[in-house]
Structures are given as C-alpha cells and as structure tokens.
Amino acid sequence: MPAEFLSNLPKNLTTHLTTSFARCFLKEKEGGMHGAFRGKTWGNTEYRRWRKMKNQQYHYLCLIEELRKRLQNGQLHAGDVLPSEQEWAEALSIKKRDVRPILKNLEMTGVLSCSKEGEMTLSKDMSDSMEELLHVMFLIQKISPYEVCQMRRAMELSAFPMVFARRERLDLDELKNLLDEFRYGNGLDSIRADEEMHRWLIKASGNRLMECVMQGIWDICSAQINLILSDSTEKLRQKQATIHEKIYKSLMIGDLKMGMGALQTHYDIIEQALADQSLYDLSSIA
Hints:
Layout: H1 2-7, H2 11-36, H3 44-72, H4 85-92, H5 96-108, E1 112-114, E2 120-122, H6 127-139, H7 145-165, H8 172-184, H9 187-204, H10 208-231, H11 234-253, H12 256-276, H13 282-285
Antiparallel strand pairs: 1-2
Helix pairs in contact: 2-3, 4-5, 6-10, 7-9, 7-10, 7-12, 8-9, 8-11, 9-10, 11-12
C-alpha cells in the first residue's frame, strides 16, 4: 500500500515541495548566518544544529522524490528490495551516513520494512504499523472505543456510496452467504460473519486507502463488538441480521437511502451497547 500511495502522488506535489524547500535552503545558505537569522542572536552551536536539521529535511525530501519517480517509471514495486545505502548516497550526491536515518524513519512509518537479511524493502501493506500505533494510543487512553466506532461509522458511510455505484460489478452472492451465516450460524460463526461483512463492504468500495486504514483500526474495538455479539440476546442478533439484510437488499434493488439508513442504525445499536457496558458515557460525548 505505501508503495502504491507514493507512486500515485501527483508529480507536481512532491516536486513542488522539494524545489521550494531547496530554494529556501539555498537562499538561507547564500545569506549566511546573518541573512538566515536577521534580527536574532545565534551562536555557532545553534547555527550548526539548524544547518544540520535543514540538511536532513532536504535529503529526506530528495529521497522521497526519487522513490516516487522510481515507483512511477516501474523501476521499483511494492515488495522490492531497495538499493543499498551507498547507492542512494551516490544517486542523491549525499553522504552515506545521511541516508541511514532517512531509511530508518521510513521504516518506522511503515513505508519500508527490514528483512531478516537486513535488506530494506518497500512495504506492501502498512496497516500493521498503523494498528500498532493505534493500539498504543488506545492503551494510554488517547483513543476511546466510542471514537473508534465513530471512525468506523464514518468510513463505512463514506464507502457505501462507492459500493453502491459499483454494485453491478460486485459478487453480491458472497455478501448473501455471509448474511445467512450470520443469521443461522452459531455464536462464533455469527461473529466471524459480521467481521467479514464489514471487511467486504470496505473492500467492495474499491478504495485501497480506506481498506488499509480500516484494516489498521479494525482490531482496536473488534473485541468489544465481538463481546456485544456474543452476549447479545437472540432477539438482538436477529435485529442486527435484519439490518445487514437491508444493506444487501439496497444493493440488489438500487436503494441507496435504505443502505445508508441501515448502516446508521447498526452503529447506533453498537454504540449504545458499548455505553451500556460502561465503556464510555454517552452524556459526556454530547
């Protein structure tokens, strides 16, 4: 996913950022210490730190631009091993020691991954990295179960019109089979079918960025949602099954409003159930 994302960036965007930064850097370089910090008192130590930071930022932008170019012209693909640090240094006319921290930063963001052999490769999927970050934020209470459900609701409501527009090209029988499994299966089968239905919905939108983000946040509140489903009464489970079937029916008969309304109702029930379990207070959200 990161490789595809980078390769699809508009050329003028990365070029503009890189060129503008280079111009700014060169002007400051020409102006010297006094030109760059006119009206300020800076010592040699502060100036060297500032210059080092500017160099690092400039090198980072240059490497990103080169990555984008190689992805667009087919020299690099997702999963490919990247050139060595020495090759990058020669290609960008910078020192080898300046390349390493840039690659490490890209690894930390999930754009690159390091193999067992120590080789840097372009990641095919950055959802794992995103999931780890969100889990940490969740554990230190920066993200609540309510906020995660809000995000899922917003994404599915955004994705559904895309799914609706593509409905004639989709395998709706796959969705129907999951609906039957949810309604007539045992507890574990219903939980699995519910997960697969929501994954199907995002994937069917055709938006790979949405799919990547949803994959990253899925496990954050799936445990709570699965707990709700496992503890729910048969009446509630059948109610949710009916809501899911409305989503399927809306695609079959071409009723967008029906599907959007069903999704809203589905998440209203989930969020109320989370509140009933004291996982968050609805009154505190208002």
